[in-house]
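User: Design a sequence. Structure:
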């Protein structure tokens, strides 16, 4: 943070350029958290873009993008000549994830949301599960079903299958309170990459009940195979997200000109 400028609210913001998360998104997350906590109260006016750029030692373009996303979410009201103020009503929160840094985005989501354990037991892997986890058909895996909530409202229904030797490192109590990414890391199976398949599907009965939506409502389904540093599959997860509570963000970088096709 610049020495000749200060953040005018109770809790300072901290941006870390060493993180893979873009600085604009770090700023977005930090200001959003302060607004929701009340540290930045409704009606408060934020410093101007140039002042914010000096405060956090970032470019004005970076500041502008963070403020624009907060405005798009309904948290800020931006008026030319009047500045940027915090809105009085908080909109329904939307969790945002990113493809360009999947694991970190999932970690951020784990910090922002609440876990509810719905089911946990050892089962035999069927053919599809065994193929994706590179196990024998019938091999023992732990099936874990969890729901995530944001401000006491459900937004995701998660069905996990983990090889039994990895799952032996944690308890049911751990599953009820801790991100699986953290548990996998503690078990020596830290995920470093993933394959994933994304599709829109109609919510089936169990998904609809967990997400508090009607059967047949469109939801975003993400099937993901997570691998450790040795390339071993350590987790198969089928995630269903409420489309009104979750967005995936994609940043595309290519030195070649982009085309419309």
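Assistant: Done.
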């Amino acid at each position: 943070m610049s020495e000749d400028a200060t953040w005018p609210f109770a809790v300072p913001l901290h941006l870390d350029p060493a993180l893979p998360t873009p600085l604009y998104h770090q700023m977005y997350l930090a200001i959003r958290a302060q607004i929701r906590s009340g540290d930045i109260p409704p009606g408060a006016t934020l410093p101007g873009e140039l002042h914010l750029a000096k405060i956090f030692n970032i470019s004005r373009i970076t500041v502008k993008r963070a403020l624009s996303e907060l405005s798009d979410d309904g948290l800020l009201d931006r008026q030319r000549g009047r500045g940027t103020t915090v809105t009085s009503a908080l909109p329904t929160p939307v969790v945002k994830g990113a493809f360009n840094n999947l694991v970190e985005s999932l970690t951020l989501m784990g910090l922002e949301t609440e876990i509810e354990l719905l089911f946990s037991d050892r089962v035999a892997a069927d053919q599809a599960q065994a193929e994706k986890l590179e196990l024998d058909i019938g091999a023992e895996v732990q099936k874990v079903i969890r729901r995530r909530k944001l401000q006491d409202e459900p937004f995701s229904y998660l069905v996990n299958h983990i090889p039994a030797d990895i799952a032996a490192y944690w308890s049911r109590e751990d599953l009820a309170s801790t991100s699986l990414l953290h548990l996998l890391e503690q078990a020596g199976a830290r995920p470093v990459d993933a394959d994933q398949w994304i599709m829109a599907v109609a919510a089936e009965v169990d998904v609809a009940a967990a997400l508090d939506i009607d059967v047949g409502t469109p939801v975003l389904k993400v099937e993901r195979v997570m691998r450790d540093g040795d390339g071993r599959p350590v987790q198969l997860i089928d995630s269903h997200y409420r489309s009104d509570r979750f967005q995936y963000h994609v940043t595309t970088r290519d030195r070649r000109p982009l085309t419309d096709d």
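Residues 23-37 form the longest helix (15 residues). The CA atoms of residues 11 and 39 lie 7 Å apart.
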